[in-house]
Design brief:
globular, Arc Repressor Mutant, subunit A, 7 helices, 158 residues
Length: 158
């Protein structure tokens, strides 16, 4: 006797409801795709400046306030120091930042913008409007999205 091949049945869903495991219903999937897609939009704007998206985030933090300790940067960017360190080394190698002992606390490493790093801000100021235009979204729409994502981040925090 030979077995009859079976076809997979449709996933079971709660009585009368949609399949809770459907890929297109997963918040994690939508966030992952949105993140990759939006970050990719930055690449052509950042390449002429010689930086990657993670390096851009470091520069954004430093343009707001420089110098910052590695610990402060790590907290602001929500990156562990082991991930942050190579980013800082590359930014230092291209002349945008310097790293040295913090005069307020010799145990801490301070990161400071160089004049070249400060000047880069003039180019970077064109990036957000270009991204908004490419996305076809207003500042208000992006503000709403940002607030929602900030709530998700806070809710998911340990």
């Amino acid at each position: 006797m030979t077995a009859t091949p079976t076809t997979p049945s449709a996933p079971e869903s709660p009585a009368g409801g949609e399949d809770l495991l459907a890929l297109d219903r997963q918040v994690c999937f939508a966030l992952a795709v949105a993140s990759r897609s939006v970050i990719a939009l930055y690449r052509p704007h950042l390449e002429p400046m010689g930086i990657t998206h993670p390096q851009y985030l470091v520069m954004l933090a430093l343009w707001e306030r420089s110098p910052l300790s590695v610990k402060q940067l790590s907290g602001l960017l929500q990156l562990d120091p082991g991930t942050l360190s190579p980013l800082l080394k590359r930014l230092e190698a291209i002349g945008y930042v310097t790293r040295g002992r913090d005069p307020r606390d010799e145990r801490a490493l301070a990161v400071e913008l160089t004049p070249q790093g400060r000047a880069l801000r003039e180019q970077a100021v064109r990036v957000p409007p270009a991204i908004m235009e490419r996305l076809g979204m207003s500042a208000e729409e992006l503000g709403l999205l940002h607030r929602s994502l900030t709530r998700v981040i806070a809710a998911a925090a340990p």
